[in-house]
Amino acid sequence: MYDKIIRGGTVIDGTGGASRTADIAIKDGKIAEVGKVTAPARETIDADGAIVTPGFIDVHTHYDGQFLWDDKLDPSFSHGVTMAIAGNCGVGFAPLRPEYRQELIELMEGVEDIPGIVLDTGMPWDWRSFGEYLDRLGARHYAMDIASQMTHSPLRVAVMGERAINHESATAEDLAAMSQHIREGMKAGAIGFSCARIEEHWSSKGAQVPGTYAADDELIALAAAMGEGGHGTFQIVPRGAIGGMVSEQIGRAARHEELDR
Fold this sequence. Notes:
The chain has helices spanning 101-112, 116-122, 130-138, 152-160, 162-165, 172-188, 216-227, 253-260, and strands at 2-11, 20-27, 30-35, 41-46, 51-52, 56-58, 81-86, 145-148, 150-151, 192-196, 233-237. By secondary structure, the chain is α/β, with parallel strands linked by helices.
């Protein structure tokens, strides 16, 4: 006796093989059989005419704010997404220096066209570290799994303040402080770190994103700090990356080798 059988759906299993009509039997929360299932079940779902697939993982969302007011996370949920990853393009909300809250709102409003008033009123803004931000997410329940990377812009602003907004170079002390934030954030549960050099990203006030002009040495130091934990994805959107066209590579091959290490 199975707990549930999904009958007669068009199964696309993600392996690259051809689709096929099949039944899927579930027991104790796990798929127990795929094919022509003859055993009974406590519940049967007629999937004739429907496509049955593994859940989709959306690796690039900007739900950083929406995580804090929306449990369903539509439209992703209604499109079959079962895991959403935020913290992309170097923009986000943690770590947080409260006096720069408005600047972070304007960055997300400009880059992703999310209304500033929604971000301002929809989040409690009661965290400081990235770990505390994750704690706020962990206290909620969602229709899918969620995860987040750390992002360069709020990190730079948290450590450098106005100098980050003015695109000044990071000092050795700045790099040490940012690196420590990353170590702590990765330990708290971040799945990686994101940054961007894309000049087409602007805040709603016309300011470019802090970190857009960060030096190679800064990015290498932050990647190294992330890598100390032995896991994580380092995401960078290169300058000139529009419509899949990349006109500028980031540094020389030796630089990439340093990032790999």
